């Protein structure tokens, strides 16, 4: 079974600072990868998904970007954080040939 | 209409009670259905997939009603450890899935 690794677990950043969150996958090849954000008391919002190296689909236009430099690596970035970027960021992996997603432990980001 | 709708609750039930959650979905072409459990400040974890024929895992039973476009989750003999948020998830194939906002369950001693 696949394991999703994310770090750091918590992060406090000032407004205007850059961001880089990394997600790596273990136990499967060619997974679909996803970045979600969950604001306090809210549901999961899909931010980006990727079906392969260098292939990124953006679901919500905003202050963030994603990249997939390797098959099992997915990176979420921002050049300048906003207060509204605070939330719980979750990476998920799926597949191949399955429709079940498995989540990493998440990164809790607070922008001050 | 939202793609996936759930009553956010909270549902407060005594230990030992039976509780049921429903979730409706708008896309009749949806092909995959799941229930996830999310504990406070943790990642969602797969509880069970939902099949057309329904499925049961111990105290948990999931049902799918394609005609009315809803799925349900029944928890029998509730335990304190069942307290969590239960997320309904609906997918259209081997890519994106849509999460409901979740239903919060609090089991009371």
Explain this structure to me?
Chain A is mostly beta strands and 112 residues long. Chain A is built from no helices and eleven strands. The mean pLDDT of chain A is 92. In chain A, strands 2, 4, 5, 6, 9, 10 and 11 form a seven-stranded mixed beta sheet that branches. Chain A has a four-stranded antiparallel beta sheet with strand order 1-3-8-7, with no helix packed on it. Chain A is globular, with a radius of gyration of 13 Å. Chain B has 109 residues and is mainly β. Chain B is built from no helices and eleven strands. Chain B has strands at 4-6, 11-14, 19-25, 32-38, 44-49, 55-57, 60-65, 70-75, 84-91, 97-99, 103-108. Chain B is globular and about 40 Å long.
| Percent helix of chain B | under 10%
* Strand tally of chain A: 11
Main sheet makeup of chain B: 6 strands, mixed
Order of helices and strands of chain A: EEEEEEEEEEE
The average pLDDT score of chain A comes to 92
Write a concise synopsis of the structure shown.
Chain A is mainly β and 112 residues long.
List the helices and strands and how they pair.
The complex is a heterodimer of chains A (112) and B (109).
Chain A: E1 3-7, E2 10-13, E3 19-26, E4 32-38, E5 44-52, E6 55-58, E7 65-70, E8 73-78, E9 87-94, E10 101-103, E11 107-111
Parallel strand pairs in A: 2-11
Antiparallel strand pairs in A: 1-3, 3-8, 4-5, 4-9, 5-6, 7-8, 9-10, 9-11
Chain B: E1 4-6, E2 11-14, E3 19-25, E4 32-38, E5 44-49, E6 55-57, E7 60-65, E8 70-75, E9 84-91, E10 97-99, E11 103-108
Parallel strand pairs in B: 2-11
Antiparallel strand pairs in B: 1-3, 3-8, 4-5, 4-9, 6-7, 7-8, 9-10, 9-11
Keywords:
A: 112 residues, mainly beta, seven-stranded mixed beta sheet, four-stranded antiparallel beta sheet, globular, B: 109 residues, five-stranded antiparallel beta sheet, 11 strands, 0% helix
């Amino acid at each position: 079974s696949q394991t999703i690794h994310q770090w750091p677990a918590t992060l406090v950043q000032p407004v205007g600072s850059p961001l880089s969150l990394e997600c790596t996958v273990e136990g499967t090849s060619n997974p679909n990868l996803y970045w979600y954000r969950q604001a306090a008391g809210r549901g999961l919002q899909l931010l980006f998904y990727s079906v392969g190296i260098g292939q990124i689909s953006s679901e919500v236009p905003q202050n963030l970007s994603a990249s997939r430099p390797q098959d099992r690596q997915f990176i979420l970035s921002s050049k300048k954080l906003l207060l509204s970027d605070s939330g719980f960021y979750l990476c998920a992996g799926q597949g191949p040939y399955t429709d079940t997603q498995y989540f990493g432990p998440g990164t809790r980001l607070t922008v001050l | 209409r939202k793609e996936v709708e759930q009553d956010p609750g909270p549902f407060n039930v005594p230990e030992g009670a039976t509780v049921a959650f429903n979730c409706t979905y708008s896309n009749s072409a949806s092909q995959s259905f799941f229930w996830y459990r999310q504990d406070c400040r943790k990642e969602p974890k797969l509880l069970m997939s939902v099949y057309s024929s329904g499925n049961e895992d111990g105290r948990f039973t999931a049902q799918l009603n394609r005609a009315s476009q809803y799925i349900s989750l029944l928890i029998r003999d509730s335990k304190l450890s069942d307290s969590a948020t239960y997320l309904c998830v609906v997918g259209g194939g081997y890519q994106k899935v849509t999460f409901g906002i979740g239903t919060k369950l609090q089991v009371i001693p």
